[in-house]
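Illustration 12: Probable replication restart protein PriA.
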Amino acid sequence: MLAGLPAARAPRAPRSAAAVPIAAELPVARVCIDLPPAHLDRAFEYLVPAALDDVARPGTRIKLRFGRQDVDGFLLERVAVAEHAGELAPVRKVVSGEAVLTPEVRRLARAVADRYAGTLADVLRLAIPPRHARVEAESAAATPALPGAPTAPALPDAPALPGAPTPAAPTPSGTAWADHRGGGAFLAHLSAGHAPRAVWTALPGGPGRGWADAIAQAVVATALSGRGSLVVVPDARDVDQVAAALVSAGVAAWAPGAAGGFTRLTADDGPAQRYRSFLAVLRGGAQVAIGTRAAAWAPVRDLGLVVCWDDSDDLHAEPRAPYPHVREVLALRAELLGCAALIGGHARTTEAQQLVAAGWAQPLQADRATVRARTPRVRALTSIDLAREGAAGAARLPGEAWQAARKALAVGPVLVQVPRAGYLPAVACARCRAIARCGACHGPLALGSAAGVPQCTWCGVLATGWRCDECGAGALRSIRVGSDRTAEELGRAFPGVPVRISGASSVAGVLARVEDRPALVVATPGAEPVADGGYAAALLLDAAVSTARVSLHTGEEAVHRWLTAAALVRPAGEGGVVLLVGDAAPAPTQALVRWDPVGFAERELAERAELALPPAVRIAAVTGTRDAVLAVLARLDLPAGAQVLGPVAVDEPARPGARDGGGTLERPVRAIIRAPLPAGGALAATLAASAAVRSLRRETGTARIQLDPREMM
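Figure caption equivalent — predicted structure in token form:
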């Protein structure tokens, strides 16, 4: 309750504001109203009309009269006596009798809202997909009657999913877990109905030994104990890989009218199919759900295992309020439900390492001999190495890299990773080397083609007739080279060799797979396609660019990008080689060369703990116009040990919301608040309370509150 508001009165029998017959039993509905203001983040009470008694069940979508408007909401629970002392309005309509909000997802949504200083309504918008009435009707007719969710985990000898293998329990021998210390014990615990929690450092592997196969085998082991599984991956291509691995492991895809198997939950499938899959999980038809970020909320019955693959990927971070991360959502879910959790990737985040250091999860990783046998040979070409080549070493593709690519092209495809998309994503004055900036908003300019007109990367304005603000010259030179220009250069360096581009902005889009034949595949980070049989070599260009950005996570992101690409290359025993080209920071470079993401994460976490940086502490960022940010900070009741840093101006375009005395848009400022980990809950609570007061008073300006932000600078 906000300070200054009167205390709640004693409960009393409900009274209706209108002559509407109300339900005889449990006539009071507590509801969550789907409105954004923070001060409305509480349960409101309405009466259940007698006519809606049978369909107004907890978890259903409803329509209500709130003030002078009709609003949507969810029915949270029904009780016999109201806490509100006045008259209650009746629920206007039950949109659907489908109870889409389960008690378990409701508890999770409340926990996530509390952790991130958000509102329940905001979280439920992330958790529950929009209704599709036609799909709901057809699914109700096609779905067989299923028993309710069991109240306790099934025994270890419970039947497996339809089509799944039926041995007594999976064993690590001959599986993707055979080379990981503790892999066999992890599967055994899953098949016995236990709830192990692990942080897994995956190894590169071919068919039957890759990361997707390991996840599929963990899902099968969980199914042998009669429980369901939830797998969340960064994008639809990863969903395809997990789906294929599940089919290979004997788990069938769910089909309408059937029970058991797995289903996909991705936005790429369209609203109808996504809602159809959601209902299949909700009704217990599908026992395994695989999908992208929103799938973390899937209402899997008798959930036994949650999996977050590649938690380093930015796609796992929700861009909408309250900005939760999939890893944290699934960790909270495992904690609340007491189910198993698996967080994995080729790299290891400091956040995942923090879970290991705190004893929340156990590490699953291979020994050094196994790592050397399963990974390609990695070599870093620094400026010292390139200086030995003379003039050839100054080229963007040095002589040694060119020789390695030519040799590899004789036996298979070669992957070329570049940090930036486009043609020339950053340009400068050819005379004085000053960064070329937009005359309207001062954002950096870029070139989309060799004969193109410079364009602002912030506001999109074309800089026709551009002149340098420093020296007046009109010529431009490149300071960053993108994937399109790289492909153009490689086409000239390797005539007759096919060159393919994979990226969100490329003509062909993001490629899923390439054949095992000679070709140069140019890809931006995260868009690397899988090669049948693995790549013969990989060239990681512009390494210095990957570690030059000023950010807390720069080194960690570089290791993740490089290892993700290198994991697609054949092992050293089959001739696989990876060349890192450029003077990158020493620590990430050594982590790649030694293939040691665990050691890098351990050292990074130790340094952050010493400097009181996340994830060793909880961090909150308040960003917006200065007066609004200061008002939010002034109301905070900070826990012991908390510290406010700033506010200071941030390098972002000016946003509407407030103006200075001269009528100019204000540039935003940001304040950072850090607190010890045990005080994280109190920090979130006081930020939520301040946001509620701001909402209630309708204060001007803008203020965005974000807990555990990825970027602090």
